[in-house]
Amino acid sequence: MTPAGPAAAAEPFDPAGVVWTRLSPRLVTARRAVRTGLQVVPLLGLAVLAVLVSGWFWLGVLAVALTAAWQWWLIGRQVPAWGYAERDDDLLVRHGLLFRTLVVVPYGRMQFVDVQAGPVDRRFGIATLQLHTASASTDAVIPGLPPQEAARLRDRLAARGEARLAGL
C-alpha cells in the first residue's frame, strides 16, 4: 500500500531535507522583456492593417494582446518553479509547473560546466550555467543566476567533479 496525500505525491520532486536555491527574480524581467519585444511588431502590424485595410484585423490585435498577457503571467509563474540544490554527492535541478522535472547530476559524471550570458542576460545581470555529462539526457541547465553565483557554482562543481573522478 502506498502513502496517500499531497506529501506523498510531491516527494519525487521534493526530496526530504533538501533546501532549494531559487533563481534571480531578474530572470522574470528579462524573459518578459524579450517576449514583449517579440509581440510589439505583430501588434503594430495588425493595428496598421486594421486602420488601413479592414476592421477585422482588430481581432488579430486582440489575439496578440491576449497571448502577450498570458505569456507575461506564465513567465511570472514558471521562473519561481526553478530551483537547484547542492548535496554531498550530486546536484539537483528542478523546474516545471504542469510538467515537472527533477534532474539529479552526480558530481562524478560531470564532464564540464559552462557559464553563458548573452546580450539580454548581461543587460539584466544574469547568467546561465550548463552542466554536461556523458549522457545528454542528464545534462542540466540553471538559468537566471547572478554572474558571481554562476562563477562560484561553476568552480565548486568543477572541483567536486574532479574530486569524484580522482576517487575512481
Automatic annotation (TrEMBL):
The chain crosses the membrane at residues 40-73. Residues 81-157 form the YdbS-like PH domain. The keyword tRNA-binding does not apply. The keyword Transmembrane applies. InterPro entries: YdbS-like_PH (IPR005182). Pfam families: bPH_2. It comes from the Bacteria. Keywords: Membrane, Transmembrane, Transmembrane helix. This is YdbS-like PH domain-containing protein.
